[in-house]
Design brief:
With about 200 residues, this protein is of the alpha/beta class. It has one domain: Maf protein. It is built from 6 helices and 7 strands. Strands 1, 2, 3, 4, 5, 6 and 7 form a 7-stranded mixed β-sheet that branches. The structure holds the ligand O=c1[nH]c(=O)c2ncn([C@@H]3O[C@H](COP(=O)(O)OP(=O)(O)OP(=O)(O)O)[C@@H](O)[C@H]3O)c2[nH]1 and magnesium ion.
Length: about 200
């Protein structure tokens, strides 16, 4: 049984592999090469399922477990932006830096130096005759002056609840303990174990 990760995001691959130290988890690109998947769902869960199903169908094997992650940051004071559009906030094909700059700009335009925000992760698992989605959240705030270069995406502007440093400044171990992704993957682990052993 192979465990395949249906993501092209290197930051996610690193975080997910570090949470599954005992399992060999293979990014889909190593098997199928690069692939663009259209994420046209209206929720994190729908998009996670689209990614996992697309890769499962392309692999065309009953001997694989496919895991995907659809995630993003939500800022209630900005009409819940960017939410499911986090990866394309500054336009289709925008990179992490451009997306972060757009969120910083929009905070400044609204006169918000800091405001509550949260990350959501939906983790989907697809295997032969099996389909699951789990969620995890991390609450905190975003600030209009990013700090640090750890993590990825919006991390330099996000301060988790209970801390005074951004995820760009904090030790990666702290993100591993607290993150939306870790929480959803903790729920996914027993399901993956069950699927491996059936
Ligand atoms: O600072 C961050 N720390 C995180 O922990 C985090 N989790 C998600 N995000 C952002 O949300 C979007 C995901 O979009 P997304 O789920 O479509 O992923 P993606 O397009 O990058 O890769 P893929 O998995 O779809 O291949 C991207 O803009 C990410 O930067 C994060 N930013
Ligand atoms: Mg994506």
């Amino acid at each position: 049984m192979q465990i395949i990760l249906a993501t092209s995001n290197k930051g996610k691959v690193k975080e997910i592999q570090s949470l599954f130290k005992d399992d060999h988890i293979i990014p889909f690109k190593d098997i199928l090469g690069p692939l663009e998947i259209e994420e046209n769902g209206s929720t994190f869960a729908e998009n996670a399922l689209i990614k996992a199903k697309t890769i499962f169908n392309k692999l065309n094997s009953n001997d694989v477990i496919v895991i995907s992650d659809d995630s993003g940051i939500t800022v209630p004071a900005l009409n819940n932006e960017p939410g499911i559009y986090s990866a394309r906030y500054a336009g289709i094909g925008a990179n992490d830096k451009q997306n972060l700059n757009k969120l910083v700009e929009n905070l400044k335009k609204s006169g918000l130096k800091e405001t509550p925000a949260y990350y959501t992760a939906a983790i989907a698992i697809i295997a032969s005759e099996a389909k699951y989605v789990m969620h995890g959240w991390m609450y905190g705030k975003v600030i209009d002056e990013p700090r640090g270069d750890g993590g990825f995406g919006y991390d330099p502007m996000f301060i988790p609840e209970g801390f005074d440093k951004t995820l760009g400044e904090l030790d990666p171990e702290i993100k591993r303990e607290l993150s939306h992704r870790s929480k959803a993957l903790t729920l996914a682990k027993p399901i993956i174990e069950m699927l491996k052993n059936r």
